Automatic annotation (TrEMBL):
Main subcellular location of this protein, as a coarse class: endoplasmic reticulum
Residue ranges, annotated region (Disordered): 800-948
Family classification: Belongs to the GPI inositol-deacylase family.
E.C. number(s) listed in UniProt: 3.1.-.-
Listed name of the protein: GPI inositol-deacylase
Source species: Molorchus minor
């Protein structure tokens, strides 16, 4: 039975919870609301020559065009504003179509005096997100392309002096790195990154990627005049978490697509390129960034940032290029209708439009009940619609305004599923205090045939701001925040001071009650003041989906609390409630912390290996399941790793060491107290499941893997299946040939390929070992069953013989009683002492011959006595066996002494007649001694035979258990080096050798270790220095948890070095001295007890 204790059971429960969270994460994405963009004409890509083409033949520079504009592109005639698109991981240069096509149509439809020329780079669809050296190649080609594009405009009168860059995924980080290498700080005016991990890569697979981020990206000259805009796709982007895309700079801006006005949708990693709502927003911002005087993107970085802030953060519905006029007083016409209502909450519904301007007035006062004004305009097309004025001009029986100050720029375009909505909110008490010359806030609608609706709500903010205590994470009940909203209430604000961490997950329900109309619309917006990551949900008569209350990034210290802005339909009353979501919280943890599991899995395997090494000192290798159960407990390894990470991170004297990876999590706000423990235990549970799959695979997939290997060999060496089978058999017998082939592969192709192929051969070797082991186990149990049957029938026959001689038992009962009492006395005196019966008997054969001659006169008594002696021998065995079982085996193994076997003889008893009384007494003494000798012999033979039976399997299970653990480590190393293999395969047609190759050192080291690992019989249980190797493996596990949870490439070297050290130890470590090695721990007192007991039993 597979061993499971409390630790393993807890780990399995955590893995089960992780699986639930993973399913929620994968299936819990929001509805896909991105609209597709389309080209109006057939897209064309024109190749542009580049000086870097010789160095990088796999790359290419192209120009995008459509229809009649293609002819100009082919003549290399360009007169627009250059924009260069950089694709990302596995990205195509053709992904520029959506952005460029929309820009072309916008320029034609708007008839602007300028247009944009879009360029794109073909990076051969490389996996730049997985293999760091590719980033350096792409950076060099991008740098060359930048200058080549500007050369195309040398003959133009108004030639551009800068270029705009748009980078997707890793293309954005390449472009960001380019800024640090520019000789001209104004060469790149604008950089837009889409779903780009600017802080760090989710997985750092190699040192080149680590250096690319650490040493280059953030070391940008302050003189660089580039505006950086970062956009992330939200929760639908499974690859890049939004908090990795954030950038904090005075000249930079970051936002999530759900925050962008008139977009408000989530986009996955590829949709962020072509999502129509986002593409339109980006193009509007780029067009507004153009200086109409120079017809180029503005050189004023402050203006560029303001434009993008307007389009992706706070859109007031105005033309940003006319923003300056909104800070001046204007003259307004007082024609039309001027209406002032004294109600605090009311709605204005103009379902048929209006024929003349309508002005609605809200009086400014200092009354607490009139503190805040919330105003919602629905389907209003007027750009300027809210003003502050002094109603001092009399007209008829009322007063109207003739001059006013703009307030429209303070309004917002509000999220909606139907009709355009514009929202305005103002603290009228504070505004009136600072602007006492104004008496009213007025809003208007110009003549239109479209229906227009206004909702007005004047209230005291204390009535509408509610501080919410979040329910406990384990709570399954809804907690009411408001049983019923106020009548005709438009706005509420729910403050969430306890919403701080990204793993928190709650669900907000907004349920309509007592609606006056059938169609109604309400919205809820989760607003995080520390970042532009607002999320929205809508509640209508057809859509009742609750709002998922969760954060894209954790709340920084001293930041304002997150809050939910409710914009309700005044025709309804609503019930507001909040519920904790356990599955949602598990989904958040699965989303953000899955990358940490690989290192924790490796640490569990290393700790299991440490336990197996400790068992080698006792002459056996434990089963992998037992090693996980007993050796992988987190008490010491996690405590040491946590303390050392704290010390290394804080002591300046240790700055020469790399930064512990936990610091990344702390800086990002994603760390929490139980994270290391949960990650480790989840890793232990995953290893346990993988071990089960591995065991099943060894038995069930042996033939499948063997057939796949045969087909691979047949195609590789042009053999048929039969010859491939012969070759495979030969390779199993001489595996050093395979190891030599792996070494050649490392030098000729890629080290990662050698690791992967070696892992496949290792698995095949383990399948063969498992078959041999199963056969030995079956034969072992067959032999044991046969021996038990023989013993059973032998006892039955002996019992029948005793019944025939029962009449003689009374005569010899005294002797048996004396023997029993003697044994009982000796057992009582020597209870608790170490017993090891290993007595050498000399001259026993002569004694037996004499006893046979003396007893030859009475065969009946002889047979009876023999039966009794056998019965007494069995009683001696049972009594002594329990007391000496453990210590006798240990001492026998440690001292490794051989004992001489004594030929088993029958005890002879002579008739005890009065005439021969003295001789009979002497014979009884000899018989007692003979019985003791026989008992000693049986005890020794029993203990001697048991280790021999168990050792029949020891070499087999030691080998398969030991190699299975090493295979797990090999398998983890192969996973880490898969990106290198994929990169090598992808670029094979350009270069058969991967350069630079971060997998070369691990590949070469493992290939060399394969020589002894596969050729010789490991493990050796008689090697010294096992304690030192245990400590080394423990150190490797600690270092992995400290420095390799995020920087996974370091784990590659820790695991490789572990296999190298263990292999060298098995090969080169000296043997333990059998006469008194370092493992002989039998002390002098035990030896004395052993000698005393030995003498008494004699």
């Amino acid at each position: 039975m597979i061993p499971v204790n409390g630790f393993i059971f807890t780990c399995l429960v955590i893995v089960f919870a992780y699986g639930i969270g993973l399913l929620h994460f994968l299936n819990g994405s929001t509805e896909d609301k991105c609209e597709m963009t389309y080209m109006f004409e057939y897209p064309q890509f024109v190749r542009i020559s580049n000086e870097a083409d010789k160095q990088f033949p796999k790359y290419g520079l192209y120009s995008y065009s459509e229809g009649k504009f293609t002819a100009k592109a082919r003549r290399m005639y360009f007169d627009g504003i250059p924009v260069l698109f950089i694709p990302g991981n596995k990205g195509s240069y053709k992904q520029v179509r959506s952005l460029s096509s929309v820009a072309l149509r916008k320029a034609l439809n708007s008839r602007t005096p300028f247009h944009f020329d879009y360029y794109t780079i073909d990076f051969n669809d490389e996996l730049s997100g997985l293999y760091g050296p590719l980033l350096y190649d792409q950076l060099s080609y991008l740098n060359s392309s930048l200058y080549r594009i500007l050369e195309l405009y040398n003959e133009r009168k108004n030639k551009p002096t800068s270029i705009a860059l748009i980078g997707h995924s890793m293309g954005g980080i390449v472009a960001k790195n380019l800024l640090s290498q520019l000789s001209n700080p104004n060469l790149v005016s604008l950089l837009i990154t889409l779903a780009t991990p600017l802080k760090r890569a989710p997985f750092i697979w190699d040192s080149h990627m680590h250096d690319f981020y650490e040493n280059k990206v953030w070391k940008i000259d302050e003189s660089v005049n580039t505006t950086v805009i970062s956009v992330s796709g939200g929760y639908n982007d499974f690859l890049i978490p939004s908090y990795l895309t954030e950038i904090q700079d005075n000249n930079s801006l970051s936002a999530v697509t759900t925050n962008i006005p008139r977009c408000w949708v989530e986009a996955n990693h590829k949709q962020v390129i072509w999502c129509k709502q986002l593409v339109l927003a980006i193009n509007r911002a780029i067009f507004d960034s153009v200086d109409l005087n120079t017809r180029q993107i503005s050189s004023n970085s402050t203006y560029r940032r303001m434009v993008f802030y307007h389009h992706i953060v706070h859109h007031g519905g105005i033309n940003i290029q006319n923003r300056d006029r909104y800070f001046k007083s204007i003259t307004i016409g007082y024609g039309g209708q001027w209406i002032e209502s004294l109600l605090r909450q009311y709605s204005i519904e103009l379902m048929k439009g209006v024929r003349e301007p309508h002005w609605y007035m809200v009086r400014l006062t200092m009354l607490p009940a009139h503190e805040t004004l919330s105003l919602l305009a629905i389907n209003l097309e007027s750009t300027d619609w809210v003003f502050a004025c002094n109603a001092n001009y009399p007209r008829g029986g009322s007063r109207v305004c003739t001059e006013a100050s703009h307030m429209t720029h303070m309004s917002k375009i509000w999220p909606s599923v139907k009709y355009k909505r514009r929202y305005f909110e103002l603290n009228m008490n504070e505004f009136h205090k600072n602007n006492s010359e104004h008496t009213h806030i007025v809003f208007r609608t110009l003549p239109t045939n479209e229906p227009v609706v206004f909702h007005v709500d004047v209230y005291n903010s204390a009535e509408r701001k509610i501080t919410v205590n979040l329910p406990k994470w384990w709570s399954l009940m809804k907690h009411d925040i408001l049983e019923q909203t106020a009548d005709k209430a438009l706005s509420y604000e729910l403050i969430l001071p306890q919403l701080q961490h990204i793993i928190q997950y709650y669900v907000l329900y907004v349920e309509s009650i007592n609606c006056d109309t059938e169609n109604h619309h309400a919205s809820a917006s989760l607003i995080a003041p520390w970042s532009n990551q607002n999320q929205h949900s809508y509640f209508t008569n057809t859509n009742k989906t609750p709002l998922s209350v969760r954060l894209y990034s954790s709340r920084p210290r001293n930041a304002e609390s997150a809050f939910i802005k409710l914009t309700l339909d005044p025709s309804c009353r609503y019930r507001i409630s909040l519920k904790s979501s356990i599955t949602g919280m598990l989904g958040q943890m699965s989303r953000f912390y899955t990358p940490l599991l690989l290192t924790n899995i490796a640490a569990v395997v290393l700790m299991s290996l440490k336990f197996q090494l400790s068992c080698l000192k006792n002459g056996y290798c434990s089963m992998f399941f037992v090693a996980i159960k007993e050796g992988a407990k987190p008490y010491y390894v996690l405590t040491i790793a946590k303390l050392l990470s704290k010390v290394v991170g804080e002591l300046k004297s240790l700055k020469f060491l790399p930064k512990p990876d936990v610091i990344y999590l702390v800086e990002e706000g994603s760390d929490f107290f139980l994270l290391p423990l949960l990650s480790y235990m989840c890793g232990a549970g995953i290893v346990w499941f993988l071990a089960i799959i591995f065991c099943v695979s060894l038995v069930t997939l042996e033939s499948t893997v063997h057939k796949m290997a045969l087909k691979f060999l047949a195609r590789t060496v042009s053999f048929n299946i039969a010859w491939s089978d012969y070759l495979m058999s030969a390779l199993h017998k001489i595996p050093f040939v395979v190891a030599a082939g792996l070494v050649i592969i490392c030098f000729s192709t890629c080290g990662g390929l050698a690791i992967c192929l070696g892992g496949i051969f290792y698995f095949l070797k383990l399948t063969q070992m498992s078959q041999d082991y199963i056969e030995e186990v079956v034969w072992f149990f067959i032999k044991k069953i046969a021996k038990r049957c023989k013993t059973f029938f032998g006892k039955k026959k002996s019992r029948g013989s005793q019944e025939q001689t029962s009449e003689t038992e009374h005569g010899i009962d005294g002797n048996s009683k004396n023997i029993t009492e003697t044994i009982t006395d000796e057992e009582t005196q020597e209870e608790g002492k170490v017993v090891n019966i290993n007595k050498k008997h000399e001259g026993s054969n002569e004694s037996e011959k004499e006893l046979v001659e003396e007893a030859s006169g009475d065969s009946k008594m002889h047979d009876t006595k023999t039966s009794l002696n056998q019965s007494e021998d069995e009683r001696v065995d049972n009594i002594v066996d329990d007391s000496i079982k453990t210590e006798e085996t240990k001492v026998h193994k440690r001292k490794n002494k051989r004992s001489k076997k004594i030929k088993e003889g029958n005890s002879i008893v002579k008739d005890n007649t009065p005439s021969e009384k003295q001789d009979a007494t002497d014979i009884d003494k000899k018989n007692c001694k003979s019985e003791n000798v026989t008992n000693e012999e049986k005890i020794h033979n029993t203990k001697e035979e048991k280790p021999i039976e168990e050792n029949e399997l020891s070499s087999s299970y030691n080998s398969i258990f030991f190699h299975s653990t090493l295979f797990f480590i090999w398998f983890l190393i192969a996973i880490i080096n898969v990106p290198a293999v994929l990169t090598w395969a992808h670029n094979f047609k350009f270069n058969t050798n991967l350069s630079p190759d971060d997998s070369f050192v691990p590949g070469l080291a493992l290939s060399l270790c394969a020589f002894p690992l596969w050729q010789f019989n490991f493990p050796k249980t008689d090697r010294k220095w096992i304690n030192v190797i245990e400590k080394f493996v423990m150190t490797a596990a600690v270092l992995s948890l400290m420095f390799a949870t995020v920087s996974v490439y370091r784990l590659n070297y820790f695991l490789t070095f572990t296999i190298v050290v263990i292999t060298l130890h098995q090969m080169l470590a000296p043997k333990i001295d059998p006469r008194g090695g370092e493992d002989d721990n039998v002390d002098d007192e035990t030896r004395v007890k052993y000698e005393d007991m030995k003498t008494k039993l004699e």
